[in-house]
Design goal:
CATH topology: Bifunctional nuclease domain
CATH class: Alpha Beta
Number of strands: 8
Distance between the termini: 15 Å
Shape: globular
Oligomer: single chain
Structural class: alpha+beta
Number of domains: 1
Low-confidence stretches: 2-49
Number of helices: 5
CATH superfamily: Bifunctional nuclease domain
Order of helices and strands: EHHEEEHHEEEHE
Largest sheet: 8 strands, mixed
Protein backbone atom coordinates (compact mmCIF):
# COMPACT_ATOMS: atom_id res chain seq x y z
CA UNK A 1 0.00 0.00 0.00
CA UNK A 2 1.29 3.46 -0.83
CA UNK A 3 1.12 5.22 2.50
CA UNK A 4 -0.44 8.66 2.72
CA UNK A 5 0.39 8.96 6.40
CA UNK A 6 0.62 7.10 9.64
CA UNK A 7 -1.09 8.17 12.76
CA UNK A 8 -1.46 7.85 16.45
CA UNK A 9 1.67 5.75 16.18
CA UNK A 10 5.23 6.79 16.54
CA UNK A 11 6.69 5.28 13.37
CA UNK A 12 9.70 3.98 15.27
CA UNK A 13 8.05 2.57 18.40
CA UNK A 14 4.65 1.48 17.05
CA UNK A 15 3.07 2.71 20.27
CA UNK A 16 -0.06 4.87 20.46
CA UNK A 17 0.45 8.55 21.02
CA UNK A 18 0.23 9.79 24.61
CA UNK A 19 -3.23 10.65 25.85
CA UNK A 20 -5.24 8.40 23.53
CA UNK A 21 -5.18 5.32 25.72
CA UNK A 22 -5.95 7.42 28.81
CA UNK A 23 -9.51 7.88 27.54
CA UNK A 24 -10.49 4.23 27.34
CA UNK A 25 -13.82 2.48 27.05
CA UNK A 26 -14.03 1.99 30.83
CA UNK A 27 -14.14 5.76 31.34
CA UNK A 28 -16.99 6.01 28.84
CA UNK A 29 -18.98 3.32 30.64
CA UNK A 30 -18.97 5.50 33.76
CA UNK A 31 -20.22 8.65 31.99
CA UNK A 32 -23.76 9.96 32.32
CA UNK A 33 -25.40 9.27 28.96
CA UNK A 34 -28.59 11.32 29.48
CA UNK A 35 -29.69 13.09 26.36
CA UNK A 36 -28.44 10.58 23.79
CA UNK A 37 -30.50 11.06 20.64
CA UNK A 38 -31.07 9.41 17.30
CA UNK A 39 -28.53 10.13 14.58
CA UNK A 40 -29.07 12.85 12.04
CA UNK A 41 -30.77 12.25 8.69
CA UNK A 42 -27.51 11.29 6.94
CA UNK A 43 -27.79 7.78 8.38
CA UNK A 44 -31.12 5.92 8.69
CA UNK A 45 -32.60 5.52 12.19
CA UNK A 46 -31.98 1.76 12.17
CA UNK A 47 -28.22 2.40 12.31
CA UNK A 48 -28.39 4.10 15.69
CA UNK A 49 -27.41 2.13 18.77
CA UNK A 50 -27.36 3.55 22.23
CA UNK A 51 -23.82 3.33 23.51
CA UNK A 52 -24.98 1.63 26.70
CA UNK A 53 -26.38 -1.25 24.61
CA UNK A 54 -23.19 -1.82 22.65
CA UNK A 55 -20.27 -0.94 24.97
CA UNK A 56 -19.38 -4.58 25.49
CA UNK A 57 -18.84 -4.92 21.73
CA UNK A 58 -16.63 -1.83 21.35
CA UNK A 59 -12.84 -1.69 21.41
CA UNK A 60 -10.65 1.39 21.34
CA UNK A 61 -8.71 1.63 18.09
CA UNK A 62 -5.86 3.65 16.65
CA UNK A 63 -5.10 4.63 13.09
CA UNK A 64 -2.43 2.27 11.76
CA UNK A 65 -2.28 3.47 8.19
CA UNK A 66 -4.09 5.29 5.42
CA UNK A 67 -3.08 4.84 1.83
CA UNK A 68 -3.77 3.64 -1.67
CA UNK A 69 -3.01 0.15 -2.98
CA UNK A 70 -2.49 0.85 -6.67
CA UNK A 71 -4.24 0.27 -9.10
CA UNK A 72 -7.28 0.73 -6.80
CA UNK A 73 -9.15 4.01 -7.19
CA UNK A 74 -9.96 4.39 -3.49
CA UNK A 75 -8.00 4.77 -0.27
CA UNK A 76 -7.94 2.39 2.67
CA UNK A 77 -8.05 3.35 6.33
CA UNK A 78 -6.50 0.68 8.57
CA UNK A 79 -7.48 0.71 12.25
CA UNK A 80 -6.03 -1.54 14.96
CA UNK A 81 -7.20 -2.65 18.41
CA UNK A 82 -5.15 -0.79 21.04
CA UNK A 83 -5.34 -3.81 23.37
CA UNK A 84 -4.25 -6.34 20.73
CA UNK A 85 -2.26 -4.78 17.89
CA UNK A 86 -2.57 -7.99 15.83
CA UNK A 87 -6.31 -7.24 15.44
CA UNK A 88 -7.02 -4.76 12.67
CA UNK A 89 -9.56 -3.94 10.00
CA UNK A 90 -9.64 -1.88 6.84
CA UNK A 91 -12.27 0.62 5.72
CA UNK A 92 -12.41 1.64 2.05
CA UNK A 93 -12.68 5.44 1.82
CA UNK A 94 -12.52 8.07 -0.91
CA UNK A 95 -9.17 9.44 -2.05
CA UNK A 96 -10.21 12.87 -0.76
CA UNK A 97 -10.98 11.49 2.71
CA UNK A 98 -7.72 9.54 2.64
CA UNK A 99 -5.68 12.65 1.88
CA UNK A 100 -7.51 14.64 4.59
CA UNK A 101 -6.88 11.92 7.18
CA UNK A 102 -3.20 11.70 6.14
CA UNK A 103 -2.87 15.50 6.47
CA UNK A 104 -4.54 15.47 9.91
CA UNK A 105 -2.22 12.69 11.09
CA UNK A 106 0.82 14.67 9.99
CA UNK A 107 -0.50 17.88 11.56
CA UNK A 108 -0.66 19.69 8.21
CA UNK A 109 -2.95 22.70 8.13
CA UNK A 110 -4.40 23.87 4.80
CA UNK A 111 -4.46 27.62 4.04
CA UNK A 112 -8.23 27.63 4.66
CA UNK A 113 -10.07 25.28 7.03
CA UNK A 114 -11.63 22.19 5.50
CA UNK A 115 -15.13 21.07 6.57
CA UNK A 116 -13.94 19.04 9.56
CA UNK A 117 -11.66 21.79 10.84
CA UNK A 118 -14.42 24.36 10.39
CA UNK A 119 -16.91 22.20 12.28
CA UNK A 120 -14.40 21.52 15.06
CA UNK A 121 -13.86 25.28 15.49
CA UNK A 122 -17.65 25.85 15.67
CA UNK A 123 -17.95 23.18 18.38
CA UNK A 124 -15.12 24.79 20.32
CA UNK A 125 -16.67 28.27 20.02
CA UNK A 126 -19.90 26.97 21.56
CA UNK A 127 -18.03 25.02 24.27
CA UNK A 128 -19.05 21.66 22.81
CA UNK A 129 -16.67 18.72 22.73
CA UNK A 130 -16.44 15.50 20.75
CA UNK A 131 -16.37 12.86 23.51
CA UNK A 132 -15.83 9.79 21.34
CA UNK A 133 -16.52 8.36 17.92
CA UNK A 134 -17.78 4.80 17.54
CA UNK A 135 -17.81 2.77 14.33
CA UNK A 136 -20.84 0.63 15.05
CA UNK A 137 -21.97 -1.32 12.01
CA UNK A 138 -21.78 -2.01 8.30
CA UNK A 139 -24.87 -0.98 6.39
CA UNK A 140 -25.15 -1.61 2.67
CA UNK A 141 -21.39 -2.19 2.49
CA UNK A 142 -20.62 1.12 4.24
CA UNK A 143 -19.19 1.53 7.72
CA UNK A 144 -21.53 3.57 9.92
CA UNK A 145 -20.36 5.56 12.94
CA UNK A 146 -21.67 7.70 15.76
CA UNK A 147 -20.08 10.93 16.94
CA UNK A 148 -20.87 11.81 20.56
CA UNK A 149 -20.85 15.52 21.39
CA UNK A 150 -21.12 16.89 24.93
CA UNK A 151 -22.04 20.28 26.30
CA UNK A 152 -20.55 22.04 29.33
CA UNK A 153 -23.72 21.03 31.20
CA UNK A 154 -22.78 17.37 30.69
CA UNK A 155 -25.45 16.49 28.12
CA UNK A 156 -24.28 14.03 25.48
CA UNK A 157 -25.91 13.56 22.09
CA UNK A 158 -24.87 11.20 19.32
CA UNK A 159 -25.06 11.88 15.61
CA UNK A 160 -24.85 9.43 12.72
CA UNK A 161 -21.83 9.71 10.47
CA UNK A 162 -19.71 7.99 7.87
CA UNK A 163 -16.78 6.25 9.55
CA UNK A 164 -14.21 8.38 7.70
CA UNK A 165 -15.92 11.61 8.80
CA UNK A 166 -16.03 10.39 12.41
CA UNK A 167 -12.32 9.51 12.37
CA UNK A 168 -11.50 12.93 10.89
CA UNK A 169 -13.51 14.65 13.63
CA UNK A 170 -11.54 12.71 16.24
CA UNK A 171 -8.24 13.63 14.61
CA UNK A 172 -8.91 17.38 14.25
CA UNK A 173 -10.33 17.90 17.76
CA UNK A 174 -8.26 19.96 20.17
CA UNK A 175 -8.33 17.22 22.83
CA UNK A 176 -7.69 13.50 22.35
CA UNK A 177 -10.89 11.74 21.24
CA UNK A 178 -11.23 7.96 21.60
CA UNK A 179 -12.05 6.10 18.40
CA UNK A 180 -14.08 2.97 19.14
CA UNK A 181 -15.07 0.10 16.86
CA UNK A 182 -17.29 -2.97 17.06
CA UNK A 183 -15.29 -6.17 17.67
CA UNK A 184 -16.97 -7.91 14.72
CA UNK A 185 -14.91 -5.79 12.26
CA UNK A 186 -11.50 -7.12 13.24
CA UNK A 187 -9.55 -9.38 10.88
CA UNK A 188 -12.33 -9.68 8.30
CA UNK A 189 -11.76 -9.25 4.56
CA UNK A 190 -12.95 -6.00 3.00
Amino acid sequence: MTTLGSGHLDENSHEPSPGLTDLGVDALRDRDMDGISSPDEAVPDSSSKLLSDSLARLRQVGVQDVGVALPETFARLVLFDLDDKSNSFTIPISLEQGSQIAAALRGLKPPRPLSHQFFASVLLAFELRVEYVAITEIQGGNYVAEVAVSSVQGRVKTFGSRASDAVLMALVSDLPVPILADISFFNRPI
